[in-house]
Design goal:
Elements: E1 2-7, H1 12-24, E2 28-32, H2 42-54, E3 60-65, H3 69-75, E4 83-85, H4 89-97, E5 103-107, H5 113-125, H6 132-144
Parallel strand pairs: 1-2, 1-3, 3-5, 4-5
Helix pairs in contact: 2-3, 4-5
């Protein structure tokens, strides 16, 4: 699987270690972030990873900042991105199985490297369930087009 990783200065070390772990597991990675010790603004990395995923250049994305929140806000502005802030293995699994998330956003400050590795493992292994969740994801896409999902006809799956 090809994975785009991005971080700001607060997640750069964690992202580099994670990229190495993913490569050892056989994944192809592309890493976006500042050189260690250099500050940067998280929206730039969120845009780069979001664009990679939305355009199909990467299968999934992982973003790391201090809390994961800023990255999530910025990444979700890229058309076609469904980025979720994830704190543990359960939220990693649910964001995939229920929401078809294609990017996870993690806290470089609050989660340890071991937990991040486990969370990413679950995220990459989890599949979208479809069913009733597919209708809801389609409604997210309707919102992305600027339409009201309550008044827009959603085709059956």
């Amino acid at each position: 699987m090809k994975i785009a990783l991005g971080s700001d200065h607060r997640g750069v070390e964690t992202a580099a270690l994670l990229a190495e772990q993913l490569r050892r597991e056989g994944h192809e990675t592309v890493l976006f972030g500042p050189p260690q010790g250099q500050s940067c603004d998280y929206p730039e990395q969120a845009y780069k990873v979001g664009t990679q995923v939305a355009n199909g250049q990467a299968d999934r994305g992982i973003l790391i900042c201090g809390t994961g929140i800023g990255m999530s806000l910025a990444a979700n502005k890229v058309h076609g991105v469904r980025a979720a802030v994830v704190h543990d293995e359960l939220t990693a699994q649910l964001c995939r199985s229920h929401n078809d998330a294609n990017i996870i956003c993690l806290s470089g400050d609050l989660l340890g490297q071991h937990l991040i590795g486990k969370v990413v493992e679950v995220f990459l292994a989890s599949k979208f369930e479809g069913g009733r969740h597919a209708r809801r994801v389609k409604k997210i896409m309707v919102i992305e087009r600027g339409e009201d999902p309550a008044t827009t006809e959603i085709p059956a799956s």
